[in-house]
Design brief:
With 260 residues, the chain is of the alpha/beta class. It contains 6 helices and 12 strands. The N and C termini lie far apart (84 Å).
Length: 260
């Protein structure tokens, strides 16, 4: 009986250590999004759900090429996150390019005024119920975002009112559950969100939430990230941490002709 207990203990300990190891991985996924427009390429870096985690210097260093916009898709921090770590993580992300922040459901636990002050001090642009053009592109491409859906201040119209016909829109919401209704009402070339952590701990197809994905949904490129950090315990299984490099390939579509 004691030997059986030891065997079970060793298996459970090994499983726990494996989940700890998986939660500390640095996985950068690369995606390509073709968009009808004047020929050029723009590159975005997307990271969400950092929470308590310290961003890896090596991961940032290993990302090659120019990044036109670094997008924090919410839950950059929570009540557990030391203020010094918020500054350190911002400094690392700014090595890639200009940083834009979208509210998540846990960020305000730090104190909204305190976090706004940090972002103002460090030149991080907050996008909430608004849109801002990605600078230095020939194509007019907006980063459009709403406040977190857990707040009472979500204004979809304001997030899309700046864009006009012919403009391109990258829509960000921390909670991707709004994506289906947004696709029906507004134009977007790409949608990005996090929040669900891919279930964080899942067994094959089974998890509290769906696994993260990158897919075309109703002709709109849609990225739902597993996120970079964790909530509750720093454990992951079957839902590896992720952040993303997205290449936007602007190129005019060639109309097909038929011989008569």
């Amino acid at each position: 009986m004691f030997e059986l207990f030891i065997i079970v203990f060793v298996i459970l300990l090994g499983f726990l250590l494996f989940m700890l190891k998986q939660a500390s991985e640095n996985n950068v996924l690369y995606h390509d999004v073709p968009i009808d427009g004047e020929r050029e390429r723009a590159t975005l870096f997307f990271i969400s759900d950092v929470h308590l985690r310290k961003i890896s210097k090596k991961m940032i260093h290993d990302i090659d090429g120019k990044i036109d916009a670094v997008i924090i898709g919410g839950d950059f921090c929570d009540k557990r996150t030391p203020i010094s770590r918020i500054y350190d993580n911002i400094k690392l992300l700014q090595k890639l390019g200009p940083v834009y922040f979208v509210w998540g459901n846990n960020d305000r636990e730090v104190g909204e005024s305190k976090l706004r002050g940090i972002f103002k001090e460090t030149n991080v642009t907050i996008i909430e119920n608004d849109a801002t053009l990605i600078p230095n592109l020939r194509n007019r491409c907006y980063l459009s975002a709403i406040d977190d859906t857990s707040s009472k201040n979500v204004q979809y119209e304001q997030a899309f009112e700046k864009s006009r016909e012919g403009d391109h829109v990258i829509f960000i919401s921390h909670n991707p559950e709004v994506f289906p209704s947004v696709r029906q009402r507004y134009h977007a070339d790409l949608m990005m969100g996090g929040h669900l952590h891919g279930g964080q701990i899942r067994f094959g197809p089974y998890g509290i939430h769906p696994h993260g994905s990158f897919s075309m949904r109703e002709a709109v490129a849609t990225l739902i990230s597993n996120g970079y950090g964790t909530t509750m315990l720093p454990l992951r299984f079957g839902a590896k941490p992720q952040c993303h490099v997205i290449h936007l390939h602007f190129k005019r579509k060639i109309a097909k002709t038929t011989n008569k």
